[in-house]
Structures are given as C-alpha cells and as structure tokens.
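To assess whether ligand presence alters the predicted conformation, the chain was also submitted together with 6-diazenyl-5-OXO-L-norleucine. Input:
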Amino acid sequence: MRIFPSALLILLLLPFAWSTEPVRARRGMVVSTDVIASKVGVEVLKNGGNAVDAAVAVGFALAVTHPAAGNLGGGGFMLIRHADGRDTFLDFREMAPSSAHRDMYLAKANSGAIQSDYQGRQMQIELNESLVGWRASGVPGTVRGLELASSKYGRKPWKDLLAPAVKLAKGGFRVDYTLAESLKSSTALLGRFPESKRIFLRDGQYYDAGETLRQPELAAVLERIAEQGARDFYEGETARLLAAGMKRNGGEITLNDLKRYRAVERQPLRAEYKGYTVITAPPPSSGGVGILEMLGMLEGSGYEKGGFNAASTWHYLAEVMRRSYADRSEFLADPDFYRVPLGRLLDKGYLAARRSTIDRDKASRSEEIRPGIAPGYESMETTHFSVVDRDGNAVAVTYTLNGSYGSGVTVPGAGFLLNNEMDDFATRPGQANMFGLVQGEANKVEPGKRPLSSMTPTIVVKDGKLSMVAGAPGGGRIINAVLQALLNVIDFGMNAQQAVDAPRIHHQWMPDRLSVESGVSPDTVALLKRMGHDVVRIDTVGRLQLIVVNGEWLEGGSNSIPHGGAAGY
Ligand code: DON
C-alpha cells in the first residue's frame, strides 16, 4: 500500500511529462523570442520604466536582433492594460499605398518559384509581387505605433528607449545558431536584393554562430529616430531614402503615403469566460473575434471533462475551431472600410446555435458549415512579446514583416527590411495566400486600407486583477495557439511554461483537416480518426510568449528557440 501515493502522483504528473519550469520573478517580466531583447526590456523596467516603455524598447531591440520579424519596416498591434483597469489597443498595421487597387497583383502574378529551407522544411514562395520585392509592401506602421505608445502611455524619455537598440546595431551582437541558420536558409529571398545580400548574407560569406553582426546603416536610422522621433521615418531623411528606393525600383510607396500614415487607437474586444475577462484584438485583426467566438462556444459545453490531451477534448476543440474559421473567411476586414458584423458574430444566441450543431462523437464535414479557407504553410516569422511591470501594467505586442524577412528588400542606405504585408489582402480572388487563406471581397485591396490580420495579442483579467498576457506568431494558426494557451491555464491548471509546451492542435475549417503536434499520442490520433477527422501531424501551432500571474509570482513561458526568451527581475 505504501507505494500507492507515489504511483498516484506519477499518474497525476504523466499528462505533463513534457513540462518544464517557467521563469519566475516578482516585480517585472518580459517574454520575447530573443533573450537579448527581453533583457533590454527588463533593464527599462528596473530603471523606472513602465510596461509600455519596456515594450517600446523591446520593439526597437528586436528590429536589430531579430531581422526576420523584428522591424521598422513592418507593422503590428499593441494591447495595453493599465493596472487601474483602463485598456486600449494601438493599431499600427501597414496600410495600402494610395496607388493601390483591387487588381494590382493580377497582371504579373506567379512568375516562378523560389525555394527556401528553414529547419529542414522546404517552403516554396511563388514569385508574385504581393510577396517578393518592392511592390509587396504596405506603408510601415511600427515607428508611428511605438511613438504613439511612448508619448501617450510611457514615462521614460523616448531617446532612452532607443538607446539599447542603437548600441546593438552599432556595436553589434552575437549571432546565435538559430539566426545563422535562418539567414543562410533565406538566401533565395535575400540574395535577390543587393542591399539585403550585402548586409544579411555578407555577400555569400555567411555569418556563423558566434560572429558579430553590426548594422551601421540601421544604427544611423535609429539614431535619427531617437533625435527627431517618428518624423524622421515618415517625413525626414529615412522617408526620403525609402521613397527614393521605391521610385527607382517600381515600388508604390511615396513620400506622401509615408507622411499620411497614422497609428490608430481602437477599443479592444472583451468577453467573459468562466469568470475571467478576456481582452483582445479588434479588427483589422481577425484573432480577437476568433478567440471570443471559440470561448463562447466552449463555455458550458463541458468539453474539458475528458481531461487535457484526451481525444474527446481535441475533438470538441476542433469542431469549435472549424466553425470559427469558417466565419473568419467571410466576415472580417479593416473596419474602416467594411462593416464587420461584430455584434452578430459574438452574440450569445448565435454562438449557442453554432455549438448545438457539434456532435460529441463525430466530426462534422466542413463543406456543410460554410465556404472559404484553404491549406496553409506556416512561416514562423512574426514575433510576439509580453510585458508586465511592478505595478501590474501589462502590454502584449505582436508585430511583423509578414513572411520571414518580409519582401526581401532592404532600403538602400537605411539597413532595414520592408514588409510583404500586401499579401494579407485578398490579392488574387479565389487563390490562397501564403498561409493558405482564401479571402473574400471584404478584404480586397483598397488605397489606405489595412489588410486583415490573424495577430492576436490578448490579456486576461480575473476579479479585476491581471491574470495572463499572451500572443504568438504563426500566420492563420495564431488564433488557435492563443486560444489553447488560455485554456491550458484556465481549464487545465498549467503553469506558464507547461501551457506553452503542451501539444496543440489546429483546424481552420478548410481544408477539412485536423493538424496535431507530436505530443498528441498515436492512440489519441487513432480515436480522432475513428470519429471521422482527417488527422495530419505538423511541427508547431504558433510559438507562444506567455506571462501568467500566479499569486505573488509572475511566470514567463516561451516557445522560442533556443528556449529561454523570458527574463524577469
Ligand atoms: O497579420 C497576419 O496575420 C500575418 N501577417 C502574420 C504573419 C505571421 O504570423 C508569420 N509568421 N508566423
């Protein structure tokens, strides 16, 4: 009998056999994909900066240390919740230039294909102009977004927030294995553009792990932004370099487009789930709507009764995902151009009716649910960071160049890469984009419009107190990744690292296929197949950067490679 308690303990622990400990700290925490950038944020917090200050400094630092997705030439979203309960959402998503129009990518589409290989995966990028080269970029929003955040909600001087990034760009930083491999494997894209080839591929003398990458042109841009603010980027010397490059190379963005760009403040979406308040991204993100629809269908369903990683739990989750992604394909776009039926999509009655079509034992057929989304390749290169300061202010930022290293174009003389975010529009009606998403008229290209996004920075509150800060890259899989982070903590009692390490699944309605990570066991897969799911294995559903508040402690959990993007104090 004496063996019984320990056997029981082992049984209880078994479901979390993949788990490791989170980084724990009491005062402040930054979780990003890169520990150098996370430490920059922690230093800002230690020196009296608040969570917004730290987030701004991390944003600029990642633009130096994580060139695949950290950026000046892209855009993103920042969700802020102040300790006093106020919250806001900063939309600094890229904007279509004024010359853009619905069919701008039809003429020269699909002129070939390039191969890229990242971590053993072969990916194919069609050489169409919404993905590669000068015409692929929307007007970048990051610099305006970070300036808006700092001027309105930060307390440290702007210059101080840029100083660490300037230092990293000027003095250089140590290239690690992941960056070296990522740069090498992006030769097909970066090698096409002389400035990218020179800076990031050293003209073929690839950077090796342990070497120092210095970026003097980028340092000069960051210094000007530190001195002159976002004005330099949108109206000054940097704007001129960008617009001149565009003009010389047949791009669309003009000085006037840059001058007109504004970051927009929007109201976050919110809803209750089991006594937790979930605060999340409004359109032009589709992510917040997705998360809230899925939570609405899950609440009260008892989906979790079989336990974490049980076939019955995955089945129910997959059915909820199927229904939510079907809606995504049709009803979401930039709210300044299209009336998103938010009230209808998040209506409790609608969600209950949607839930009532789920059979607990049998997979539905996507054809019978609704039309719109196709198979997806997942690029890993958007990036998310989460910050909490000692007062309990919280910031969740997801920003991106879209694809890994964006359009491949580095602005000559300015050392930063440009996004290929125009591909997030429905650029070729009826054809899937890079993430396999086929989107409708609502998301067509229009001048001054922001493309629909899946980025889902999310903050969770319980009894008026901060509980979680979450987000991830992963293209169309982001929404499901963030959903599962929330469920792992709320419904399955995991800590921050367990919650990001635990296996995840992904269903996006079309194709009618259930993707599962390797931690879902073969016998569970067999049960899912028996229920009628077409199950495929995939390597990962997003990469989460999660902070969980656990009593006095802040827990940081990160999916970053190499592990350890969390830093606290
Ligand atoms: O906004 C979006 O949904 C996409 N541009 C995000 C791209 C992404 O997550 C790529 N990497 N994981």
